[in-house]
Amino acid sequence: MMSELLLCFLFFLSCSHLVLSSSFYFSNYSTKLCAHGQTIALLQLKQSFSIDNSSSWRPYNLGCTTSYLKTDYWKEGSDCCSWDGVTCDLVTGHVIELDLSYRRLFGTIHPNSALFLFPHLQKLYLAFNNFNGSPVSVGFGRFSSLTHLNLSDSEFSDLISPEISHLSNLVSLDLSWNDGAEFASHGFNSLVQNLTKLQKFHLGGIFISSVFPNSLLNWSSLISLDLSECGLHGRFPDNDIHLPKLELLYLSGNEGLSGNFPRFSENNSLMELDFSATNFNGELPASMGNLKSLQTLHLFGFQFSGSIPSSISNMKSLQILDLSNCGFSGSIPAWLENLTQITSLSFDRNQFTGEIPNVFNNLRNLISLDLSTNNFRGQIPPSIGNLAHLYGLYFFDNQLERVIPSSVNGFSSLSYVDLSYNLLNGTIPSWLYTLPSLVELDLSHNKFIGRIAEFQFHSLEKIHLSMNEFQGLIPSSIFELVNLTSLSLSSNNLSGISETSNFEKLRNLTYLDLSNNMLSFTIFGNSNSMLPNIEWLDLSNNNISGICRWNMGEDTLKHLNLSYNSISGFEMFPWKSMQIIDLHSNMLSFTIFYDSNSMLPNIEWLELSNNNISGIGTWNMGKHTLKHLNLSYNSISGFEMFPWKSMQILDLHSNLLQGSLPTPPNSTLFFSISHNKLSGEISPLICKVSSMEILDMSCNNLSGMLPHCLGNFSKDLSVLNLGRNQFHGTIPQTFLKGNSIKTLDFNSNQLEGLLP
Length: 756
What we know:
By secondary structure, the chain is mainly beta. It has a 29-stranded mixed beta sheet, with no helix packed on it. Strands 19-21-23-25-27-29-31-33-35 form a 9-stranded parallel beta sheet, with no helix packed on it. It is globular, with a radius of gyration of 36 Å. The N and C termini lie far apart (116 Å).
């Protein structure tokens, strides 16, 4: 009895000593636990990094911020053991833990870095920084006492030192998402052989290029394994998986990894499983039903066949189920309503058929529902309206019909709705106009009718209602949506007069498509302040007329389509970023192609066919960039030159061109100059256009003999049309030596000889 009391007393004294030491340390700042050498080393470490305040810093964008940076409070003269991110042993004063994760540190960790002056470190966390391509060098292998090492997502690169495999005390290793880092030959296998105590093993995104090591399935202590996107290949072991502590298993993105879906024993703790984008195939085994703790299942791109196995119905804890692009067919099973904890359900890009079952009454926790790109028919089930927490609804690219349910319960969080490419009809239900959180609405390519009503909230960023049968005016509320970036109302029956000043508040708009309607614009205002960020503008096939004075989007507009209108001219082409302009089928009547190399400096595609353009072309805009020019069906009488260095498609047919045949640029693939009034012979210079695929010079007054080189000047020539001219002489024999020609027309000439 006395001995037991003595032991208790000694234990009390030892505990009291630790408590008193700790209390004394924290209450008496004049007594420093941290050795001076460690303070100097930490301050040197601080000086070796700067702070990356750029907006591109990923964790910062994801909200992983702190109110201060830990190293800001590292000051000489204070005890380093009290510094944020630093933990010391209370007896020895040695620094045993450094946590500098999420600190926006920027700089290089050199082999002689002060980081490696802490030999007693047990835990080192450097995740989510930017170490500027530093290697995971030999210095990290010197921390012989290390149990936790996290270097994830910190811009490490190059070969990972094999010394890492000597850290035999590690229980947690995370090197994931350092995209430039990779293991040397046999480095990964050495790691697997030596670090058998690991409980957390994360190498996602690290290039390994190895077969899956069977020995990993014998690590009974393993809790979390992430080998996604590592270049694993070969066949996954067919053994049953008996890892009772395993909670997370990620093998996604290893497209060379094949095999059958693994079988799991009943004694498992698995909560997250991701085999997406691998080459596994076959059937889901019945043992899937053993995963009763599973919360997340990602099998995107898994090559299954047949129906969804009923064993999944036993996973009552499931919250995220992704079976997209898996090759499933048949109908959605009724047992789906038993997965009452589900928050995200993705069945998109399969071959499901039949009606969507009315199984959503019990799935009240659903946040995201994606059934897109299948073959569903019938109506949208009314139980969808009871998903009060729904955030995203994606039913696009099916064959759904009838009307959208008119009654819903809340939908206060619904932000993304995509029902496009279906056969839905009727009018848009009123609740879709009153969703307070709606960001994107896509109902395009359906059969909706009626007028577009007024939107009640300003959260919308995207509205796509094209390819329907809407009529009437554009609702005025659309012009109040200051967050709008994309608006498409094309191919409807919208009408009315819209002044360009209506768009004044849409300063964030980058995409605008109102084509194929019956809209009129009274003013093409000279207002560079309107639509300052517009990149794509399509107003084709409307009732637009007059002279265009529009210079909105002067620095941003890249694509402009005003074809099939009645525009008579442009005062200027002010757009510096423009790449594509389509003005065909208007009433443009330029008399001069004025010489302006500074205009449209980035133009690549220019469609001006079927207008009233006349005169001699001296245009050299797009000299180094223009690839496609169509001036057909105009009244152009000639060209001073063809200055374009990158031209591929040059269409000048059906004009009034006279004189000798101009030689197209050497880069040309398609050249049509038919139905003009050209005369004279074909210059041998045309044979320098060695990549020509289609050449049409028909219906002119060309004469003389054909150049000898015309038969084989381009190995890619498939169409040659010289018909209805006045050529004479012998067909060049070079045509007989093998060619790619599929269409050859010498009709209505005076040629003789063998045809190829």
